[in-house]
Amino acid sequence: MTYVVIEACINCKFTDCVEVCPVDCFYEGENFLVISPDECIDCGVCEPECPAEAIVADTEDGLEWWIEFAEKMSEEWPNITESKEPMQNADDIIDQEGKKTLLSEKPGEGDE
Ligand code: SF4
Ligand code: F3S
Fold first, then answer.
1. Helix and strand totals (H; E) in the chain
2. Counted domains in the chain
3. Which ligand does the CA of 85 lie closest to?
4. Which of 16, 45, 50, 78 maximizes the CB count within 10 A of its CB?
5. Residues in the chain with pLDDT < 70?
Protein backbone atom coordinates (compact mmCIF):
# COMPACT_ATOMS: atom_id res chain seq x y z
CA MET A 1 0.00 0.00 0.00
CA THR A 2 1.05 3.58 -0.60
CA TYR A 3 -0.37 7.07 -0.36
CA VAL A 4 -1.14 8.92 -3.57
CA VAL A 5 -1.27 12.58 -4.59
CA ILE A 6 -4.33 13.34 -6.72
CA GLU A 7 -5.72 16.11 -8.92
CA ALA A 8 -6.38 18.66 -6.16
CA CYS A 9 -2.62 19.31 -5.86
CA ILE A 10 -2.34 20.54 -9.47
CA ASN A 11 -1.39 24.22 -9.69
CA CYS A 12 -1.53 24.52 -5.86
CA LYS A 13 1.52 22.67 -4.50
CA PHE A 14 1.16 23.82 -0.92
CA THR A 15 4.09 21.50 -0.01
CA ASP A 16 3.11 21.15 3.67
CA CYS A 17 3.26 17.42 2.95
CA VAL A 18 6.96 17.13 2.16
CA GLU A 19 8.21 18.38 5.52
CA VAL A 20 6.59 15.60 7.53
CA CYS A 21 7.55 12.58 5.42
CA PRO A 22 9.99 10.42 7.41
CA VAL A 23 11.46 8.82 4.29
CA ASP A 24 11.57 11.89 1.99
CA CYS A 25 9.70 10.23 -0.84
CA PHE A 26 8.06 13.24 -2.51
CA TYR A 27 9.17 14.31 -6.02
CA GLU A 28 8.40 17.66 -7.59
CA GLY A 29 6.95 18.43 -10.99
CA GLU A 30 6.28 21.84 -12.47
CA ASN A 31 2.75 22.02 -11.02
CA PHE A 32 2.30 18.80 -9.02
CA LEU A 33 4.03 16.43 -6.62
CA VAL A 34 4.15 12.66 -6.61
CA ILE A 35 4.89 10.15 -3.87
CA SER A 36 7.19 7.29 -4.87
CA PRO A 37 5.06 4.15 -4.40
CA ASP A 38 8.26 2.14 -3.91
CA GLU A 39 9.57 4.33 -1.11
CA CYS A 40 6.39 5.29 0.79
CA ILE A 41 6.16 3.35 4.06
CA ASP A 42 2.45 3.96 4.38
CA CYS A 43 2.69 5.89 7.63
CA GLY A 44 -0.16 8.26 6.72
CA VAL A 45 1.46 11.29 8.36
CA CYS A 46 1.28 13.46 5.22
CA GLU A 47 -2.39 12.93 4.48
CA PRO A 48 -3.88 15.39 7.05
CA GLU A 49 -1.22 18.02 6.29
CA CYS A 50 -2.53 18.88 2.81
CA PRO A 51 -4.89 21.89 2.81
CA ALA A 52 -6.30 20.75 -0.54
CA GLU A 53 -6.97 17.18 0.68
CA ALA A 54 -4.94 15.97 -2.27
CA ILE A 55 -3.35 12.97 -0.54
CA VAL A 56 -5.28 9.71 -0.26
CA ALA A 57 -4.59 6.08 0.54
CA ASP A 58 -4.39 3.77 -2.46
CA THR A 59 -7.18 1.64 -1.03
CA GLU A 60 -9.66 4.11 -2.54
CA ASP A 61 -11.14 3.21 -5.93
CA GLY A 62 -10.08 4.69 -9.24
CA LEU A 63 -6.51 5.60 -8.43
CA GLU A 64 -4.72 3.37 -10.93
CA TRP A 65 -3.85 6.22 -13.29
CA TRP A 66 -2.42 8.36 -10.48
CA ILE A 67 -0.34 5.51 -9.09
CA GLU A 68 1.13 4.74 -12.51
CA PHE A 69 1.88 8.42 -13.02
CA ALA A 70 3.61 8.54 -9.61
CA GLU A 71 5.70 5.45 -10.44
CA LYS A 72 6.88 7.04 -13.66
CA MET A 73 7.49 10.60 -12.51
CA SER A 74 9.18 9.70 -9.21
CA GLU A 75 11.98 8.26 -11.37
CA GLU A 76 12.30 11.50 -13.33
CA TRP A 77 11.45 14.43 -11.07
CA PRO A 78 13.75 15.84 -8.35
CA ASN A 79 13.28 15.02 -4.69
CA ILE A 80 11.66 17.67 -2.47
CA THR A 81 11.93 17.61 1.32
CA GLU A 82 11.51 21.26 2.30
CA SER A 83 8.29 23.19 1.88
CA LYS A 84 8.22 26.30 -0.29
CA GLU A 85 5.73 29.00 -1.25
CA PRO A 86 2.55 27.56 -2.83
CA MET A 87 1.89 28.32 -6.47
CA GLN A 88 0.33 31.64 -7.39
CA ASN A 89 -3.45 31.71 -6.74
CA ALA A 90 -3.28 28.36 -4.92
CA ASP A 91 -5.79 29.52 -2.31
CA ASP A 92 -8.23 30.66 -5.00
CA ILE A 93 -8.29 27.34 -6.86
CA ILE A 94 -8.07 24.99 -3.89
CA ASP A 95 -11.54 23.57 -4.66
CA GLN A 96 -11.41 23.82 -8.44
CA GLU A 97 -12.34 20.64 -10.28
CA GLY A 98 -11.22 19.44 -13.70
CA LYS A 99 -7.57 20.37 -13.28
CA LYS A 100 -6.19 17.11 -14.64
CA THR A 101 -5.86 18.51 -18.16
CA LEU A 102 -3.44 21.10 -16.75
CA LEU A 103 -1.06 18.48 -15.30
CA SER A 104 2.49 19.00 -16.52
CA GLU A 105 5.13 16.29 -16.89
CA LYS A 106 7.92 18.84 -16.71
CA PRO A 107 10.14 18.63 -13.63
CA GLY A 108 9.98 21.13 -10.78
CA GLU A 109 12.99 22.59 -9.06
CA GLY A 110 13.14 20.24 -6.07
CA ASP A 111 15.06 21.34 -2.99
CA GLU A 112 17.04 24.48 -3.61
FE1 SF4 B 1 5.80 9.86 3.38
FE2 SF4 B 1 4.27 8.55 5.15
FE3 SF4 B 1 3.15 10.16 3.33
FE4 SF4 B 1 4.22 7.85 2.56
S5 SF4 B 1 2.42 8.11 3.89
S6 SF4 B 1 4.48 9.81 1.55
S7 SF4 B 1 5.97 7.68 3.96
S8 SF4 B 1 4.53 10.78 5.00
FE1 F3S C 1 0.17 19.12 -3.12
FE2 F3S C 1 -1.10 19.13 -0.85
FE3 F3S C 1 1.40 18.50 -0.83
S4 F3S C 1 -1.39 20.56 -2.49
S5 F3S C 1 2.20 19.74 -2.49
S6 F3S C 1 -0.19 17.37 -1.84
S7 F3S C 1 0.37 19.74 0.67
1. 2, 4
2. 1
3. 2
4. 50
5. none
Q: Is residue 7 included in any domain, yes or no?
A: yes
Is residue 106 in a domain? no
- Domain containing 17 equals 3-87
Give the ligand at the shortest distance from the Cα of 3.
Answer: 1
Sign of the CA dihedral with 73 first, then 81, 98, and 57 last: positive
CA 68 to centroid of ligand 2, rounded, Å = 18
Q: Which atom of ligand 1 is nearest to the CA of 47?
A: 3
Q: Whose CA is nearest to atom 6 of ligand 1?
A: 40
Q: Supply φ then ψ for residue 106, to 5 degrees.
A: -70, 150
Residue 109 lies in a domain: no
The CA-atom distances, in angstroms, between 97 and each of 7, 12, 23, 30, 87 are 8, 12, 30, 19, 17
Percent of the chain scoring above 70 in pLDDT: 100
CA distance 94 to 78: 24
The set of protein residues with a Cβ atom below 6 angstroms from ligand 2 is 5, 9, 12-17, 33, 49-50, 52, 54-55
